[in-house]
Amino acid sequence: MIIAVMNYSGNVGKSMVARHLLAPRLGDASVISIESINADDNDGPTMRGSEFGSLQEKLLALDDAVVDIGASNVEDLVNRMKSYSGSHEDFDMFVVPTVPDAKQERDTLATIKALSDEIGIERERIRVVLNMVDPRDALRSKFASLFAFHDEHRGFVLREEASIHENELFGKLANSPITIGDLLADATDYKAMIREAQTSEQKTELARKVAMRRLAVGVNAQLDSVFAALMR
Q: Stretch 64-93: mean pLDDT, rounded?
């Protein structure tokens, strides 16, 4: 499966969604970053929006990939998809992450309109992920404009279950090559190492690793649920 992750707005967690939600659940799919400047935490291959022809060739040779499209390149890629007839069919799905912020919500609506109305992508291939959500909040209230637009437009898939809760782990992993999968696979007995550590600094660092791994267990389970809701 080839998935594009995009939004006209920055700061919606596109790279997090690409690296931590989607890629691990697509058989550790390649993450291809489309950025004018590679300023995010992705350590995979990077391209510019102007290299759309090369991107098409790369995608046609892959079975699974997640394309993380930087905000500054979305308009360029939308225009190029209009020019390259049928090129949007190289993508099985377009995932649009958003957060509960007025500007990001407006940009999310613009992104959906571009995909659905301007390019003509079918409803089932445009799916929204609600990101940085406080689990105590009523989603229809926090994303009121988005849900109202969905009720009227119906040209995309929006499910309350496809919402990622706020968690400090995502901040800790930003700008790091470490993934949630890496944390889960780490079988090191840090508690035994803490007992043997000689300095308070060593103990603090080892305790941090224990905490990270514990956070990863809960986050991974939640992302499993989000992925299932997104894909059904």
A: 90
